[in-house]
Amino acid sequence: RSGNGGKVRGFFQGGSTRVLDELGARIPEGVRALLAVPGLGPRTLGRLYRELGVTSAADLRRVLESGAAARLPGFGERKARQLLEALEQVERQGDRIPLGYALPVAEALAAELEKLPGVERVAVAGDLRRGRETVAGVELVAAAEDAEGVADAVAALPPVEEVLARDPAKVSVRVEGGLRVELRIVPPDAFVPALHHATGSAAHIARLRQRARQLGLEVDERGIYRRSADGGAEEFLPVPDEAALYRHLGLGYIPPELREDRGEIEAAERGRLPRLVETADLRGDLHVHSRWSDGAASIREMAEAARARGYRYLAICDHSRSLRVAHGLEIEDLRAQWREIEELNRHYAEAGIPFRILRGAEVDILKDGGLDYPDEILAELDIVVASVHSHLRLDRAAMTERLLAAMENPHVDVIGHPTGRRLGIRDAYEVDLDAVIEAASRSGTVLEINASPERLDLGEEAARKAAERGVMLCIDTDAHAPGQLAQVVLGVTVARRAWLEPAHILNALDLPDLEAWLRLPKGERARRGPGSVGKSGDSPPPGR
Ligand SMILES: [Zn+2]
Ligand SMILES: [Zn+2]
Hints:
alpha/beta; Beta Polymerase, domain 2; Beta Polymerase, domain 3; 4 domains; 5-stranded mixed β-sheet; 22 helices; globular
């Protein structure tokens, strides 16, 4: 790390900043974007631009592949090869980074910023605060009187590798891992409007401005205000928090995940905003793995981690026998696993601990839509999550048929990661998602929102559509280690962007309600739809 200190200080002494300024002044805007390629700093980029005329990613690829870059003095084959690999990686990601990778980086940097003297508050803004599934970069807003002092200090913070641009109230840096972070520093009394503005989306903000004008008000990053009759003085209204800003516009508070101009302003006008699901609404996780298949921990360790989160239940869903790469369980392994689960549950019951481990399995959906265990075995499980892990290149009709056949099985409770996508790695398999949603609704099958950072599957659009068609969803982490249970927040974010309430989410049910629901035949689950368990039974509705 110490090697970077000199490089960073160099920027502030005007060394590389000049290169950047020169780049900014004389070449197309797009060139700065090449700084996103890890290992390509302003100096190198400046040389490639001046000496080889590189102004685009395509140019960069050309000079790296042709050897022209490698022939520059002090450059070399090795560096050219590394840059080419880095460029390819950036291009694969389409310059966007999955939420689950950006969020911890942003939070770590925010925590470092908060420790700087004079910094009163720091918050994540932009796409990341709205919970988009991938982000181009991170935006942070900090409140401090001395913006210059804070901007100076940022460069020396541990995760910061390089300062890309800087003006008095704004610093752009690249942190470890290549993520770009833009930090705005505003006076403390301007923090709330600045954060609101930087959160966006642009479409949401534009609608708010329009609405403000109809009320004789103006909204911008400085706040919400009224102009005097002669158009001169501005009278700012108090904005202690974002709720106040919406109140001035006659609207209920709109959570960041809804700020996309997808009907939230109309809903806020009529007092019809959803009561979005929160992490605290969840009572358990219905899809985790243990060391019995490819997990890293014992059932007991997973259960204790679930209890530490305040959960009431945990479904152990290890892989089924066909998935050899993940050490899928043979039937006799499954029976042995049930004995271990029973023993642990007996221990909890005797100790008066209100917690239960459910016998589950993540059963492979075979190529023809059959399941990887016979029905007699599936019938003995508390919960069956059925997933596609093989034959991912079937054509659309065959893949759709395969999933529909699995949903027709009376023992299949949940379809795991229904589209198979891996963010930045692999697209969803070809499937008619509308047909899957219809079939889930008809058959009473739950669709999973898999919260694994590289999946987020279902995504927000499909999840919203599913809920509108009366499909129940669940938010599972697919955790393979105790620490991964915390990734549930990513799945909750997807659910919130899909406008989901606790009543849409199976694992927002308390244990007795969940058990009652799992005892219902699927046809009955389909008939009742989401949110009906408590209403028709003896217990209160979920999440209230
Ligand atoms: Zn899986
Ligand atoms: Zn899994």
